[in-house]
Amino acid sequence: IQTFDLNLHMDYRSFKYSLRNENQTLVFGEGNLSETKGTLIDTDGMLLVFVHSGHGIAQINSKRMPLTSGNLSMIFSDVTFCIESHSRDFRVNYISFDQSLVEHPSFRLNDPLFWKIIYETPVLSLDDKQQRLFKAWLESFILIVTECNSRFRLELIDNKIFELLAMTASELGKLSLSNISLRRDQAWKLLNEFYNMLPKYCHINRDVKFYADRLSITTSYLFKLCRRQMQDSPKRLIERQTIAEIKSYLSNTALQIKEIAEKMNFDDDSYMCRFFKRAVGLTPEEYRKAQAIS
Known about the structure:
Elements: E1 2-3, E2 11-13, E3 16-18, E4 26-31, E5 46-53, E6 55-60, E7 63-68, E8 71-76, E9 81-86, E10 91-97, H1 99-109, H2 112-120, E11 123-125, H3 128-147, H4 150-171, H5 186-201, H6 208-215, H7 219-230, H8 234-252, H9 257-263, H10 269-280, H11 284-293
Antiparallel strand pairs: 1-4, 2-3, 4-10, 5-8, 5-10, 6-7, 6-9, 8-11
């Protein structure tokens, strides 16, 4: 397997095959992934697998799915992925992203229907035009990672991930999704409204009741809605959006920690720091320094 190394290489973690080691946030390459055959691949964050020749069989969340030329698999956290078998001419491009890179662009998308489709149908069949779009995206992405000044690299990677998610969402109506129902029922309408509220209000109020009241539903129903459709709680989704906003301030502004806490409506900066470290594992200052070094 050929990989680009930003100090990036493969190692084994727990019972899964990891394309990234503990300190890596990104790895990409081209090959047949034969080293992973029969073993679950660590999908924490996002894993992209684009088949450009041959065919194979993957097991995704215990379902056996064919992989053929022109297929793009978009695998996110909490989805299991394993390549059971493949032909001799099986070749793929793959990219493994850490959750820290995927979190912010994922919340920028704000399209719960997209996530429903991707979780239920993670293998997308691209037509010729869509394959050209993806290959152009891949080429520009690799150029950014390998050639871009480190001062701007993380922001550009963030934008490229969002571009791919948004481009995929816009093309979903043209993709081969015959085995999925796209009913835009009342539940999805409410969930979509909730998602749209997160970036608008997370800096004002992080109480689940605040969002339920604005949706004219109970907190219990909002919890059931999020758990059933998104496999997460509304509290966790609000917190993730809040963390993404704080990260954006830390990476893209020179605001002091106290000023960010004020903008995000925390009682004091020490509470925001504890909140951030509990979620990220770093203090806001440590995170800002790590972004500057990257």
